[in-house]
């Protein structure tokens, strides 16, 4: 239910102001530089202390196709996607449809050049003569078209009563304080603002008012946060092949490393190799992890498919490496610029034969940072490839967050024997379960001891890493690796649980669906109280079992077609299989609280 | 038992040891499980010999391979060095990663013609472009030995074999492929020519970047009929060395002069050692790319079996040099790997 | 429990004869040509009308490593693996261990060259002076070593009382009736036979007696049978890359096609391309299936990993193709010459994003043939890649079977529109669910009509196959493909069920584990009566649900570590998840009835 | 709306139509969604023009591609032909399969430099070896356009770009790669040279096997600074055609004579049509492999932007010829695909 509906319910005759609670969408064409304008608006709200979040819905091309930028402003701190009440219509190709989609009582700010928009008298229209406003501003010709976007910034500022100095501050940040650029752009913003003040009269209820809810927070994309986490996790060899939406992860890593990771002589303590494809990227991190680097790659669905053979190899030869999958909509090329949680089951058992891999599931920029460094510790402790499954929504959009906590534990490099230790032990067996946790010891190439070397191979081997086709060697080795996975259960990040004593219904989710779910739970607090367990990793631990046991029905809500996590939990918790219900949906857009509420109520209706 | 971790020879015995006190045995690997007479076995034993003669420190070497009979050979030499038997066709990427993690290691990669020319073509070419410092040995027999003798990409067009039938496709010349991809050390040899293999291997180990040795290595099980260009019979009869080769460790500066037929000259290698070339029959200058391509093409057209150092050019920096690597990344301390808390706080300022 | 134990139980003082019921193992080194000798023995028993089966346990190299050939002879018709009572010890490297493993009362026929075998007076030893026996036989030098094997053929013939003319007949078949070869080899057989008659005296109870239980049967490997099925299924474009154990599938296909599939002008109605790797093989069958060929590839685990991206593509673009996975032990290179059922869960949802693929599960050469042709019908009816999951045991070993039934239905080419039909319809929409079964219509390239063309892409598309990023297009299209999978449930081969009214326990299995299970069920008939459902395909149908519903406990027995089919059934039948029990085991060897009995009794003991 | 299935032009209008009664519009595809000014767009429009001029029957053509901006272009031409937008780097294998299923089809494959030279290197090389009959267009801009401008394998060593930084690796010369892999029709052109692109495309469609057109096609978004060898500015200023080209459909027999500088000659193509070459500046003979390699290497060394038919050799049979394909396999009847019941019974005899 959006604010307007609620207003009507509340039965207002005249429309009372709606403050710091609306969703605004800017419709433009790809490659017109509207991003700067949109981020300027976002930052303005943020600087005014109002919780805000932006989602860029862009096409899979470089220039010309429709793009929508959604900004959610919420004094309650809700940042899930919500159908917009305010439209900035700047794209002729979609304007007609965009206007149709506005809820009754909505607002449309449009470029005067747009012809025959649909007539709707349940909307407020503001016409902005962009042409006039940008006439004669002096900027390099190349940037001219971009100026148009500043016109809507000004108009929105007027409509929502955003102080211009705040806009200017935000704008400056966008342009990295390059004065000339800032000035020319602000000029348009001011003109638009003044023009609106003089020629338009405000008929809509939407306003913003300063708050203090963003005090001390930062704004960053998930890919930047993850990359920064990797920098503090000691990432030393990164190999990658470009693919949307993971490219910006490596862009960030390549930007941050030189700033933060030069040694005392200014030499790099890292290297980043652009591979010829994902097969090669996977091979590079296998080689690097084996030789003692903290190795990382980032990719998306198609790349995961191409890495399958090497992941099966890494699982069996027990090589640490970190693989970020910034999920986009699959199968196949699918929707490369839309978000999804569709690679969960595929990555969990990626590769031929019996395999299982730890998966970390970040839901915020804080967790992207945390898992950014922690994933290396886990990979080296467990000596196995570790996945971090983020998604396009989290990875490429800007999110508010607390300043990241510095790693709260020293680096865990796992069971690596030095030459001295090998000497002391009088040798070692690479694949022996010395400690009963299934995790063996390894040595790094270059270890100066005649007994330090061993031979790594994807074929059958015994405890001494010698080639073996013996049945019992195979059996024992694979049983040990299975034990290792049991060890992993309590090493990986535990779930975040909100138990509601009065709830008979539980919800399990992971990643970015949390925002729609949290908002929905609040709305349903009375009608349908729920508990909430947010998985932060696979494999699951006892806490998940207990949570399920404690509720009559548990809904697993996820952003894919087949209810992939639901299936995983069914097999991990067979005793509860029938009380685990799947709510799975994927059309490329992040969930809305509204949709979650409806589905939950419907399911509960059915199951009563 | 395969790959026993050997220990340095007990000094009390009177056994010939090299400058670092290791005996030839110390460079052995596990006993070979390849067919008796397989060319790969003789190559493996040359690696052992070279390790001994060059006083290689086993722990400074890594040996890598793909999948195939050829790719099994690293198990049969340098048992005291770390080994990595990777995936079919993927040794190049693994080597690249390992050598970025620790560029102080010297790598010997072993592959097959199928592993390199068929499934591995892409990674092979891109390894050459990156010029990762390593020796890349191709044990080239024109067939997939391990899967029982199908044609690989290096089989000669028209070649007929009992199991595989007739090969309809033009052969891939791995030396040409390496050269046009940017490789600066490209040689061809013959498993039956032990001395040449050794000298080339030594020189290759001194090269600045990737050094490719395309060694014709007969598969006695599936491709060794005397009329096959990759058989012992053919090789022994027709091998045509372009020059006589000699490796000279760490000699003082000697520069390259143009050479006349039969003339003698030495080429300085990256680590200061040299390789001496005495031209046989024709004048051949391995430092000219086009001449090399021309010679290879002519050999292919006329079915000549030329061997020797086909192309040499040390100018391009290795990948580690390009990446300006200093301390091996695998040796960095936690402090070097994790920036300080204040660094984090400062960095986050710009995101407020 | 082997025959000897049973004897002891029966409490015989002197050993009464054991007729047509034993397991014999020949231990040699790889590449010594023992295969001919072993198959000669196998065929001899077969020709005598006695049910028999041979399993070759060979190493992953070409020459020199240990090889064992197991021959099971059973008047009851059991052909599962069984520990051998009779050993032919011809491999110095393993002789010691081989002898140790013999059960008390067993027999060891050994090459006189073997030094210090373990002394065991609970065994019968027959020493064969191979050297003398092959001395001066005239054969090409190259074949000389092979002759040695004929010595044990003769010795075994003597011991088991196999008529020499039967051996000769079998031998001739092996050598394709090349008289000279047959003669020289038979010479050795006879010499050994005579020598044994004169110098050895029989102390063991094992004998064979003619029966008529192999009347009219054929002997073939699963890979040959599958390839033959493909030939009769109209395979027209095959693309492959060599990999054990699938290579012999393509070898057979390449051998059979020229014999059976030349057209009236002697032109091939097929082509087989050796690709540069499995990625290319997968791409080739995608292109071929799209263009109207019956496209097929065969591979094993590592190849499946490399095909993941294309399979995800084929699922989403809806292209028919058949992929045979002759399973070997994974993960990674694993044990390339050992058998497994370890790729079930990986192939079932192969590829990134939401995907599900039909899988056929042959258990016999009859089913290899049947699924060989049927898989093409299913692929073209469903317009999707279809997997056939065989295994090394079935694929590479020789099995008895009934002569194959000719396809009992005309070829199903699926919904393909001709130019005329396009004309009549006035166009078509490639991805429209016209019939409500989720299966759309397609046209083939080359269809001579201006409205016949469409554009195939792995990115989002609408019903007209036009590029689309619209949420509802994605949603609808993927929902339709899911419906198609529901349609598949009743198109794929139904399970084979043996309901036992007095059974509270059910067994579900698939593929070659059936033989050990069937034997075990007979042995347990009294102590633990069971029903048996053998899955012949995925996805499952109602019959499986009913079977599970009808039993208190259902054990899923399979040859992998993680109980992969068990997991699949748990998610498909959540209501029964807790009564589905997993019995999963993988060490590279086929199961024995003995092991199955023990495990079942143990599990049942626990659950009582 | 993208890729609308067009219908033949209504004859009542007075619109110029070709010999088979189709107007140029009938060869259009969907409106391009590429950047304005992208080189790929001009290439697409040349395909449309050529289709019209050669009277191609749309249903006899298939268009295939990999992934990338370049690989999108098949959607923008020949809307009445079946299209296949495959996976990144995998167009060659898909084309091979499709053309084995129906070798009577003529195929136009479109790829990019990343799609072909980076991830697709292996499949590209092996397609050349198989000589599958098709036109292989590379829209070569030296960057990954669709992923926002990273360097591809064909970027020049040392090239500097705003987003991508500096390229440290030697460029892959796709023409050289094609030639040494056995391709018999190798040409380089420039998206800005419409006429040459057209004539080469026509000739390529008449070739017996794989015909590679490496077309420099500027990426206006990420690699179009005038100093970049793959920019419009550079191309327009520096393009150096080796000869003037003309395509002559179905002329009578004319044989090849050696040519002097500036001399005119025609080369007969596989389907009986011809291509005429008038040498510019130097004598260049496109029928000699080594000369071609030499010329390409020299161009690379001196940064020359040479265009034209670089190598031509029609001798090798196409894959379909090698496989002796007759009736297209996709057109076989059930009877031809399934042997008789008696055939089965007889066959099984030998397994009793
Ligand atoms: C992905 C994959 N495909 C196929 C195989 C099977 N295979 C193992 S070795 C080999 C070919 C080896 O040929 P080559 O590299 O020439 O080595 P050789 O045995 O001739 O020395 C193949 C196809 C594999 N191991 N992995
Ligand atoms: C397996 C896979 N990896 C990565 C990508 C992402 N990707 C799409 S296009 C492209 C590069 C295209 O470059 P090029 O072939 O030169 O085409 P251009 O866009 O420059 O015309 C990449 C890396 C993908 N689609 N699939
Ligand atoms: S099969 Fe050939 S390549 Fe393999 S080991 Fe035997 S001889 Fe060597
Ligand atoms: S990004 Fe470059 S290649 Fe892609 S469409 Fe734009 S100009 Fe063309
Ligand atoms: Mg080989
Ligand atoms: Mg490009």
Small molecules held by this entry: thiamine diphosphate, iron/sulfur cluster, magnesium ion
CA-to-CA gap between the ends of chain B?
62 Å
Regions with little confidence, pLDDT below 50 for 5+ residues of chain A:
7-13
Question: Based on the structure, what is the oligomeric state of the protein chains?
Answer: heterotetramer
Which structural class do the helices and strands of chain B define?
alpha/beta
Largest sheet, strands/sense/barrel of chain A: 8 strands, mixed
Beta-strand residue fraction of chain A: 15-25%
Helix content of chain B: 25-40%
In percent, how helical is the residue content of chain A? 25-40%
- What is the 3D form of chain A? globular
Provide the spatial order of strands within the biggest beta sheet of chain B: 2-1-3-4-10-9-15-11
Mean pLDDT of chain A: 95
Structural class of chain A: alpha/beta
Write down how many β-strands of chain A occur, each being a DSSP E stretch of 2 or more residues: 24
Which pair of protein chains has the largest interface, and what are the residue counts?
A-B, 79 and 68 residues
How many distinct beta strands of chain B?
Answer: 15
Report, as a whole number of angstroms, the end-to-end distance of chain A: 24 Å
- Helix count of chain A equals 20
- Specify Rg of chain A, calculated over alpha carbons: 27 Å
Q: Over all CA atoms, what is the radius of gyration of chain B? A: 21 Å
What is the number of helical segments of chain B per DSSP (H or I, 4+ residues)?
Answer: 12
What does this structure look like?
The complex is a heterotetramer, with two copies of chain A (608 residues) and two copies of chain B (352 residues). Chain A is an alpha/beta fold and 608 residues long. In chain A, 39% of the residues lie in helices and 19% in strands. Chain A is built from 20 helices and 24 strands. Chain B is an alpha/beta fold. Chain B is built from twelve helices and 15 strands. Chain B has helices at 39-53, 69-72, 91-101, 113-118, 121-130, 174-181, 194-205, 232-238, 289-302, 319-322, 334-337, 341-349, and strands spanning 61-65, 82-85, 106-112, 134-140, 143-144, 150-151, 160-161, 165-166, 185-190, 210-216, 239-241, 243-248, 264-268, 274-279, 305-312. The radius of gyration of chain B is 21 Å and the shape is globular. The model of chain B is unreliable at 1-6 (pLDDT under 50). Chains B and D meet through helix 5, helix 6 and helix 9 of B and helix 5, helix 6 and helix 9 of D. Strand 18 of chain A pairs parallel with strand 2 of chain B.
């Amino acid at each position: 239910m959006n604010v307007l509906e609620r207003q009507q319910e509340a039965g207002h005759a005249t429309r009372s102001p709606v403050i710091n609670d609306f969703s605004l969408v800017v419709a433009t064409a790809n490659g017109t530089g509207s991003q700067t304008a949109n981020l300027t608006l976002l930052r303005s709200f943020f600087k005014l202390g109002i919780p805000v979040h932006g989602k860029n819905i862009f096409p899979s091309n470089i220039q010309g196709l429709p793009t929508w930028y959604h900004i959610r402003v919420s004094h309650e701190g809700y940042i899930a996607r919500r159908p917009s009440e305010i439209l900035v219509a700047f794209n002729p190709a979609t304007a007609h449809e965009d206007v149709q989609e506005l809820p009754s009582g909505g607002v449309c700010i449009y470029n005067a050049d747009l012809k025959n928009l649909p007539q709707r008298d349940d909307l407020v229209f503001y016409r902005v003569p962009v042409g006039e406003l940008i006439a004669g501003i002096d900027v390099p010709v190349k940037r001219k078209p971009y100026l148009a976007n500043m016109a809507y910034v000004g108009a929105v500022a007027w409509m929502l009563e955003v102080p211009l100095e705040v806009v200017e501050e935000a704008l400056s940040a966008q342009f990295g304080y390059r004065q000339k650029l800032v000035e020319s752009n602000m000029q348009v913003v001011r003109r638009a603002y003044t023009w609106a003040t003089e020629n338009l009269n405000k008929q809509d209820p939407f306003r913003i008012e300063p708050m203090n809810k963003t005090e001390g927070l930062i704004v960053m994309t998930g890919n930047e946060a993850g990359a920064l986490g990797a920098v503090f996790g000691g990432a030393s060899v990164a190999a990658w092949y470009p693919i949307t939406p993971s490219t910006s992860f490596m862009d960030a890593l390549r930007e941050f490393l030189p700033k933060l990771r030069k040694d005392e002589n200014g030499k790099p303590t890292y290297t980043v190799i652009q591979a010829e494809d994902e097969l090669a990227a996977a091979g590079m991190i296998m080689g690097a992890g084996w030789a003692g680097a903290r190795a990382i790659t980032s990719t998306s669905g198609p790349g995961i498919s191409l890495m399958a053979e090497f992941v099966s190899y890494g699982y069996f030869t027990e090589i640490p490496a970190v693989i970020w999958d910034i999920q986009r909509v699959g199968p196949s090329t699918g929707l490369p610029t839309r978000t999804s949680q569709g690679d969960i089951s595929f990555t969990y058992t990626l590769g031929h034969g019996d395999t299982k891999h730890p998966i970390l599931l970040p839901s915020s920029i804080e967790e992207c940072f945390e898992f950014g460094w922690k994933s290396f510790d886990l990979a080296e402790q467990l000596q196995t490839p570790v996945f971090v499954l983020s998604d396009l929504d989290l990875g490429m959009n800007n999110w508010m967050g607390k300043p990241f906590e510095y790693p709260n534990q020293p680096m865990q490099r796992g069971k690596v024997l030095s030459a001295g230790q090998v000497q002391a032990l009088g040798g070692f067996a690479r694949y022996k379960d010395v400690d009963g946790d299934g995790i063996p010891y390894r040595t790094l190439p270059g270890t100066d001891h005649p007994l330090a070397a061993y031979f790594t191979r994807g074929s059958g081997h015994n405890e001494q890493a010698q080639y073996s086709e013996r049945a019992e060697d195979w059996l024992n080795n694979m049983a040990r690796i299975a034990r290792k996975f049991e060890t992993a259960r309590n090493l990986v990040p535990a779930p975040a649980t909100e138990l509601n004593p009065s709830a008979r219904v539980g919800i399990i989710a992971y990643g970015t669906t949390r925002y729609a779910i949290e908002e929905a739970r609040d709305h349903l607090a009375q009608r349908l109280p729920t508990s909430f367990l947010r998985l932060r990793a696979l494999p699951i631990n006892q806490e998940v079992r207990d949570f399920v046991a404690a509720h009559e029905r548990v809904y697993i809500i996820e952003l894919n077609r087949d209810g992939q996590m639901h299936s995983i939990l069914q097999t991990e918790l067979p005793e509860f299989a029938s009380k685990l219900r799947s709510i799975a949906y994927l059309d490329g857009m992040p969930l809305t609280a509204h949709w979650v509420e409806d589905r939950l109520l419907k399911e509960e209706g059915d199951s009563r | 038992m395969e790959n026993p971790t050997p220990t340095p020879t007990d000094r009390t015995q009177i056994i010939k040891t090299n400058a670092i006190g290791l005996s030839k045995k110390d460079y052995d690997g596990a006993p070979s499980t390849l067919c008796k007479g397989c060319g790969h076995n003789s190559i493996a034993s040359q690696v052992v010999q070279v390790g001994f003669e060059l006083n290689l420190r086993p722990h400074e070497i890594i040996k890598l391979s793909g999948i195939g009979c050829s790719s099994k050979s690293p198990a049969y030499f340098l048992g005291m060095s770390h080994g990595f038997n990777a995936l079919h066709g993927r040794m190049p990427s693994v080597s690249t990663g390992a050598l970025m993690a620790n560029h102080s290691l010297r790598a010997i990669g072993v592959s097959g013609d199928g592993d390199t020319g068929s499934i591995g073509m892409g990674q092979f070419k891109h390894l050459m472009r990156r010029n990762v410092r390593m020796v890349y040995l191709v044990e080239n027999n024109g067939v997939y030995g391990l899967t029982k003798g199908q044609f690989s990409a290096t089989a000669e067009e028209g070649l007929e074999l009992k199991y595989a039938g007739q090969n309809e496709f033009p052969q891939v010349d791995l030396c040409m492929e390496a050269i046009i991809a940017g490789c600066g050390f490209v040689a061809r040899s013959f498993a039956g020519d032990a001395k040449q293999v050794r000298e080339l291997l030594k020189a290759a180990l001194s090269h600045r970047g990737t050094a490719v040795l395309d060694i014709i290595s007969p598969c006695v099980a599936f491709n060794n009929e005397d009329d096959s260009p990759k058989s012992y019979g053919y090789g022994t009869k027709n091998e045509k060395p372009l020059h006589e080769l000699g490796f000279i460790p760490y000699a003082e500066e000697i520069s390259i002069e143009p050479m006349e037929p039969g003339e003698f000259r030495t080429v300085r290698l990256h680590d200061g050692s040299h390789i001496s070339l005495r031209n046989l029959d024709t004048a051949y200058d391995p430092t000219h790319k086009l001449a090399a391509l021309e010679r290879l093409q002519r050999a292919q057209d006329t079915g000549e079996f030329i061997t020797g150092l086909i192309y040499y050019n040390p100018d391009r920096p290795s990948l580690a040099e390009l990446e300006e690597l200093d301390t091996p990344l695998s040796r960095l301390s936690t402090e070097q790997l994790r920036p300080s808390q204040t660094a984090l706080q400062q960095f986050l300022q710009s995101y407020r």
